[in-house]
Structure formats: C-alpha cells, structure tokens
Amino acid sequence: MLVIYIRNESLPSKCESCSVIAREFKNELFKIKNLPKTISRNKAEELFLELSENVCQNMLSYRLDPTRDSGIERFFKGTPEALRQLKELRDKGVKITMDVPEDLWDKPGVESSLLKQHCENILEEFEDIIVETIINKTSFEIFVCSIEMKCPRFYKKEL
Length: 159
Description:
Elements (H helix, E strand, L loop, with lengths): L13 H17 L10 H18 L3 E3 L10 E3 L3 H11 L18 H16 L1 H10 L3 H9 L11
Antiparallel strand pairs: 1-2
Helix pairs in contact: 1-2, 1-4, 1-6, 2-4, 2-5
Protein name: DUF3456 domain-containing protein
InterPro entries: DUF3456
Keywords: Signal
C-alpha cells in the first residue's frame, strides 16, 4: 500500500510560490506572438490582466514531487512519477487500494491550491511592479520575489 501525506513543511512557502509564479508568468509572456519591442503602460497593463488569470489557473496543474526535499524544483507541471506508475499498474489490472479515491487522483492537491492562492495575492499586491517589469523587460523574480518580498534566490542563473 502506498501512503502519501502532506507535511506542513512540504507546502509551498510564499517565496517558493513567488518563484514558481514568476517563471510561469515569464513563460506565458513569451508565448505571445508579435509582442512589440517597446511596450506602453496601457499595453503592459492589458498584458498583465490577460496573463494573470492564466498564470494563476496554471498553478492548479503543478504537483509536488515528494522525492525532492526543498526548493522550487519540488513543484512541477504534470503527473507525479508515483501516480503515473500507479495508473500503469491499474491499467494492467493490478488492484490498487489507497486512502484517496481514484476519481481524486488527478485533482489538484492542497499544494496546488495554495500556489493558486499565493498567485492571486502576489499579483494583486505587486501589480504595479509587475507591470513595470513588463514595460522594462526586467525580471519579475528579481524585482518582486527577491527585492520586494526579500526571498532568497531559487535560481542558479537568469531565467
């Protein structure tokens, strides 16, 4: 029997959340085709509003990798390896008994919901600074997470 539990310390801190959110925001921004070289304040505010909803909704697709002890690498998009293996076993006819009903296997976990909640709070609190990072093409992660929130840097090089 596989037992999965969430320890309080395995939930994302606001700093870890900020880093994940900043990376997701940057990824969403890079997906925009025909982004002008110079971005006006109005365009930056429009982009912020457009991206904010997607970014926070995307937090629900993040999962916790229990094999990694700390840092933002614990959070990834997709299906955890253990769950993928359980599904493969189930598909081969192996009876799986767990405390979590099968219909909840793919539902967002508490860590994903907390990432989404942190996302909404961070984007609301630091909207003006994030808009400035869009205009100036500077790092959300540095200006919001490191400077404003006083978080440690979770990255090894500029993202």
